[in-house]
Amino acid sequence: MTRVARWLGVLLALTVVVSGCVNNEERERANQVIPIDVDVAMVPEIAALVPPEITRTGRLVVGVNIPYQPNEYKDATGKIVGYDVDLMNAVGKVLGLAPDYKESQFDTIIPSVQAGTYQVGMSSFTDTLEREKQVDFVTYYSAGVQWAQASDNDDVIDPDNACGLRVAVQTTTYEDTDEVPAKSAACVAAGKPAIDKVKFDSQDEAVNALILGRVDAMSADSPVTAYAIKRTEDRLKPAGGVFDSAPYGWPVRKGSPLALALQRAAQYLMDNGQYREIAANWGLEEGMIDVSEINGAVS
To answer: Residue 17 pLDDT more than 80?
Structure first.
């Protein structure tokens, strides 16, 4: 689930490689979702919760890993965009802060938040009990795991019976560290071949490998898989349903009062309609939540 697993410039190249058609680049740009800038003003009583040392700078330093469409990626101009970006921009408005996005490797974001290099992480992090030992999380969405397989593969792939198959994951995501290893261990315990987990540094590489037949399936967060299926013009299809739903969250330093400020800002957007407006723009209404929590892990 997250990252549970990231891709525009690379996906453009991917599309050309797969089809050999230059016009796919034009279609890719034409099919882009246009980011939304919601109408919301600073809320003084919520902004007052931000630590003074952050308020003085007027900015919120956000560590982000890309590409991970539709949540965070670069558009054709190189600007970081996506559902998560639109939501964080709206949170920034409520807090009177301008988000300053810093591109980073996914597995370095939480350590960088702990060290104070970034004030918050924003990369479709699944809020887990294990991660809560390192940082606090502010929840803002609910995602599950969704597998995909090539559309031209007539064999039905069952995520609960994938023993011996090659399954692509993005490194350090929930799928890499928890979900696929648990399924593989169950295979071995039943006397069957282990799942061959194939790790990639970015989600776009996992998608590319599946399209090119280098793996049998991929496992990623449900919104990411759904978007990959849509954006690759049905070269992929779902393999089984969505399972293991859990919250996405923004990680902040353990015990930081910034967590409460972010939680109140997210709740304000949920209560006043901007949150739904952003989710609807990206087609992600299914995973909306009604209440933002600090440390809302379910497992």
So the answer is: no
Closest by alpha carbon to 227, among 101, 83, 21? 83
The Cα-based distances of 140 to 64, 201, 250 in angstroms read 16, 25, 8
Q: How far apart are CA 180 and CA 209, in angstroms?
A: 17
Radius of gyration of the chain measured on its C-alpha atoms: 19
pTM of the predicted protein model: 0.76
Query: 81-117, pLDDT tens digit by residue?
Result: 999 999 999 999 999 999 999 999 999 999 999 999 9
Cα 210 to Cα 84, 148, 233, 259: the distances in Å are 25, 9, 14, 38
15: pLDDT strictly greater than 70: no
Each residue of 24-74: pLDDT tens digit? 444 444 456 899 999 999 999 999 999 999 999 999 999 999 988 899 999
What is the rounded CA–CA span in Å between residue 106 and residue 100? 17
Q: Please state the domain extents for the chain.
A: 9-143+249-287, 145-244
| Dihedral, CA of residue 205, residue 203, residue 214 and residue 186, to nearest 10 | 150
Class of domain 145-244: alpha beta
Long-range Cβ contact pairs of 264-270 (< 8 A, separation 24 or more)? 264/46, 264/49, 265/43, 265/46, 265/91, 265/94, 265/95, 266/87, 266/91, 266/138, 266/139, 266/140, 266/292, 267/291, 267/292, 268/43, 268/46, 268/94, 269/38, 269/40, 269/87, 269/90, 269/91, 269/94
C-alpha of 64 from chain center: 10
Pick one of 3.40.50.300, 3.40.190.10, 3.10.50.40, 3.40.50.2300 as the CATH number of 9-143+249-287. Answer: 3.40.190.10
Task: Name the token pair of 55.
Answer: 């308020």
Q: What does DSSP say about strands 196-200 and 135-150: parallel, antiparallel, or unpaired? A: unpaired
Distance of CA 291 to the CA centre of its chain: 19
The tokens for 159 are 């995520």
